[in-house]
Design goal:
Number of strands: 2
Radius of gyration: 22 Å
Number of helices: 8
Strand content: 5-15%
Length: 251
């Protein structure tokens, strides 16, 4: 059975730049990211390019995504959060399509790599931090000091709040990476079992038992699609929660 982790290996296609010991190459992960962005742009352009009073399937899907994220922003940030709707919407679609593209046999799941998810999480973290300081200036440091707490407790709480704040991109990255990697690994393991049991040199009992890992893999595929949708939602809602702290300075 092939190593289930082999699907996560990054293969370079061609070198772009090399400086010292650092090499910048276009890889299968890079291709997956490009395909993700191109697919989003093409589908959204097709959806809004020929808008009709009675929407077709693609337009209806785009409107569902739009309304879903608009409500998410409204519920978690408030009316002032609509300014940041394009950012949250872009993050949601990028993660969602990245997860779903990885479900295509032979495709590379870049969201199963901690480097990719941490980069995206850092973009969210830095964007939220910039918004917080632009809106509130130095008062944004108040996010580290919960209201109504005495000076003595602040000595202990501020470092804890600072660690919690700085750990946001880590938790965002690990949550997405771990879920996608674990799900794809399980699918590969059960698919390998199904292939082994259906081989020509397997006994009749083994071939009959092939239905068990095959059925498990079908269920895992459905479960992994659900996880792909859920993780995109979680990433988007946490982005909204963090942006809410920056916009409204709740502490």
């Amino acid at each position: 059975m092939q190593d289930p982790l082999h699907q996560f290996v990054i293969h370079p296609y061609f070198r772009i730049l090399k400086i010292g010991g650092i090499e910048l190459s276009f890889t299968n992960s890079s291709l997956a990211v490009v395909m993700d962005i191109v697919l989003i742009c093409v589908l959204m352009s097709m959806a809004i390019g020929g808008r009709k009073l009675i929407p077709g399937r693609l337009q209806a899907l785009a409107e569902i995504f739009h309304r879903f994220i608009a409500n998410l922003v409204e519920d978690n940030i408030g009316p002032r959060g609509q300014k940041y709707f394009p950012f949250v919407f872009s993050v949601f679609l990028f993660v969602l399509f990245g997860n779903l593209l990885g479900m295509i046999p032979g495709a590379f799941t870049f969201t199963s790599h901690i480097v990719a998810t941490f980069t995206l999480a850092m973009i969210v973290f830095l964007s939220v931090t910039v918004v917080g300081f632009r809106r509130h200036g130095l008062k944004y440091f108040g996010i580290l000091a919960p209201g109504g707490v005495s000076g003595g407790l602040l000595f202990f709480l501020v470092p804890i709040e600072l660690i919690s704040y700085l750990s946001r991109p880590i938790s965002l990255a690990i949550r997405l990476f771990a879920n996608m990697m674990a799900g794809h690994t399980m699918m590969k393991v059960f698919a390998g079992f199904a292939v082994m049991l259906s081989s020509s040199d397997a006994g009749s009992f083994s071939r009959a038992a092939n239905v068990i890992p095959l059925a498990a893999n079908v269920m895992l595929t459905g479960f992994e699609i659900a996880v792909a949708l859920l993780q995109a939602y979680v990433f988007a809602i946490l982005t909204c929660v963090y942006m809410n702290d920056a916009v409204n300075l709740h502490h």
